[in-house]
Amino acid sequence: MTWNVYLSGEIHTDWRERIIQGAKEHNLPITFTSAVTDHDSSDAAGDVLGKDDNSFWRDHKSSKVNAIRTKNLIQKCDIAIIRFGDKYKQWNAAFDAGYCAALGKPYITLHAEDIIHPLKEVDAAAMAWAQTPEQVVELLKYTVSDS
Asked: d(Cα 78, Cα 91) in Å, to the nearest integer?
């Protein structure tokens, strides 16, 4: 079986690459998917539908176009890794966690200890909380192994 792992959350650090590389190093049977991680492309996803001078409507259209990808990939994943960074508040990641919980999709949160309190409900529904991408790789190794 090849596992489908969805990577959600902040886009300003190399956490995705570290998890993907760790999975490759251990020959884990995993396919990784993710939302669009290029900030400008994500923000402009709805621009093809017409120019808006009001940033609310531009963001509204782009979030809906982005949701086509996100909803489908979350629905198809076997597990999600949801990363919360310290630079920005990732409301989209919290939404993804809630969507996973509603669908009964297992997820692992990845974040620093100093934001445990604001993420208490998100962590309560998670199957695990990791603080480093390397811990996530170890969890994935255990989860997808045949033995």
From this structure: 22
What is the band of 147 on the pLDDT scale with cuts at 50, 70, 90? low
Helices first, then strands: H and E counts in the chain? 6, 5
Q: Distance between CA atoms of 144 and 146, rounded to whole angstroms? A: 7
Tokens of 125: 């529904």
Q: Which CATH number fits the domain that encloses residue 48?
A: 3.40.50.450
Position 89 pLDDT exceeds 80:
no
**Measured distance CA(122)–CA(82) in Å, rounded:** 10
Q: Give me the residues paired with residue 4 across strands.
A: 31
| Structure tokens that stand for 107 in this block | 């997820």
Q: How does the average pLDDT of the chain come out, rounded?
A: 95
Among the residues of the chain, which ranges form H helices? Answer: 15-25, 39-43, 55-76, 91-103, 120-125, 133-144
When divided into structural domains, the chain yields a total of 1
Segments forming the whole domain that contains residue 44: 3-144
